[in-house]
Amino acid sequence: MARVIFYTKPGCQGGTKQKVLLTAAGHEVVAYNLLTEPWTVERLRSFFGDHPVAEWFNPSSPKIKSGEIVPEKIDAETALQLMLREPLLIRRPLLEIGDRREVGFDVQKIDTWIGLKPADESLREMSENLMNQDLQNCAHGNDGGQKQHNQQSDCNHGHGSQQHEKQGNCKH
Fold first, then answer.
1. pLDDT tier for residue 76 given thresholds of 50, 70 and 90
2. Cα separation values, 88 from 8, 9, 82, 99, Å
3. How far apart, in whole angstroms, are the C-alpha atoms of residue 32 and residue 156?
4. Global confidence as pTM
5. Quick one: average pLDDT of 102-131?
6. For residue 16, what are the contacts with CB-CB under 8 A and spacing of at least 6?
7. 12 catalytic, yes or no?
8. Which of 2, 1, 33, 6 is nearest to 95 (CA)?
């Protein structure tokens, strides 16, 4: 099985599901904090391959959702500079397996690449359930949940506004 270097935002529900699916398939997952990683332009760019620049961005980022940043109108160099300054803009996860690097969690692509079938029959139902979910996007969905987190004084899932201010974003 593969050793998967996995860059994500700590506490992200989607990232947790992605790691569970990889682990259930027998892969070793080594997780790193995407927000504190010392990125360089060259290293970050290596994860995006031939994806269009707009696909490099995290659509759930507050600046994307608010329209402050419009990924379709940004060139590659500007995108990379913005992401180095504000890692929340980077689409997650970033995956590194051997010499290959990828962005996002396309279940079909990853299954073809390294396999996502459960390593143990007892994990089949859970794995199939996860594979049928949208693991590509933030668990908040596209309903403005992130904007809500940044605006409300007390979060509705257990940690108050101080946690959001400290993290700059919801920690789950």
1. very high
2. 10, 8, 10, 25
3. 27
4. 0.75
5. 85
6. none
7. yes
8. 6
Confidence of residue 117 (pLDDT cuts 50, 70, 90): confident
Give the H/E segment covering residue 96: strand 94-97
Q: Name the catalytic one among 12, 138, 155, 170.
A: 12
* Closest to 140 in 3D by CA, of 72, 92, 102: 92
Give the residue, 97 or 118, on which the prediction is more confident.
97
Nearest Cα neighbor of 103 from 71, 151, 149, 125 is 71
Alpha helix segments (H runs only) across 53-160: 62-65, 76-85, 107-113, 124-131, 145-151
pLDDT tens digits, residue range 134-156?
667 665 544 333 333 333 333 33
31 residue type, one letter: A
DSSP 34-54: TTTS---HHHHHTTTTT--GG
**pLDDT of 83:** 98
Tell me: cis bond preceding 10? Omega within 30 of 0 counts. Answer: no
d(CA 13, CA 168): 17
